[in-house]
Specification:
The complex is a heterodimer of chains A (130) and B (76). With 130 residues, chain A is of the alpha/beta class. Chain A has five helices and four strands, in the order E-H-E-H-H-E-H-H-E. Chain A has a single domain, classed as DsrEFH-like (Hypothetical Protein Ychn, Chain: A, 3-Layer(aba) Sandwich). Classes of the chains: A alpha/beta (130), B alpha+beta (76).
């Protein structure tokens, strides 16, 4: 049923960015798109096993997301992987900088990936960055 | 024999109700009917769009006192 390809590069540590990326990943994946996510820079720390998903907010909407019953961004990414077969990869460079191994990350993350392969795979599809 | 199941996603925001419905559909058998209850206006528009896109059957969409009732039959 794959009709389109969506690639998401996630680097932000801000709640609103993480939320929107998770929404695109989950809804995109369950709607028949082939979704890939590369998690790098300041976003990767949230995907360490046991890490809090409490992220700093950029503004009013982020505060409202906290107050209302919006799904957590980590739940959205997990649902993207489990319900929509999205492939969510940690960035190998960010892992090296943080000094973490694949086994230290949430289990729904697939193998570490470098930017070269991610960009090559993304060719011809939509690319979103947050 | 087809079953009917209700998914209460009231109070959840987009895309929560849709994801709860999809989880329910994954667990259901072909022919089963699922009714999702949502108070999220965006989801009330998005869920029928998703059903149409992936090819399940939208049976009914009604709104009562701010609660949308969307019923879908799993077709595949």
């Amino acid at each position: 049923m794959v009709s389109d390809k969506i690639s998401i590069i996630l680097v932000s540590e801000l709640r609103e960015d993480l939320q929107m990326a998770g929404m695109i990943a989950s809804v995109g994946a369950v709607s028949g798109n082939s979704v890939s996510v590369l998690i790098s820079m300041n976003a990767l720390k949230y995907f360490l096993k046991g890490a809090s998903d409490k992220a700093p907010v950029a503004g009013h909407m982020g505060e409202m997301l906290d107050r209302k019953k919006a799904p957590s961004f980590k739940t959205l990414f997990e649902q993207a992987a489990e319900l929509g077969d999205a492939r969510i990869h940690p960035c190998s460079m960010a892992m090296d900088v943080l000094g973490v191994e694949w086994r230290d990350l949430d289990t729904f993350l697939k193998e570490p990936m470098g930017l070269t392969k991610f960009l090559d795979d993304a060719r011809g599809g939509q690319v979103w960055s947050f | 024999m087809a079953e009917k199941r209700k998914i209460d996603a009231r109070g959840s925001f987009c895309p929560g109700p849709l994801m709860e419905l999809i989880a329910g559909i994954k667990a259901a058998n072909v022919g089963d009917e699922l009714e999702v209850l949502s108070t999220d206006r965006g989801s009330a528009a998005d869920i029928p769009e998703w059903i149409k896109k992936v090819g399940h059957e939208l049976l009914t969409t009604t709104e009562e006192n701010g609660v949308w009732h969307i019923t879908v039959r799993k077709t595949k």
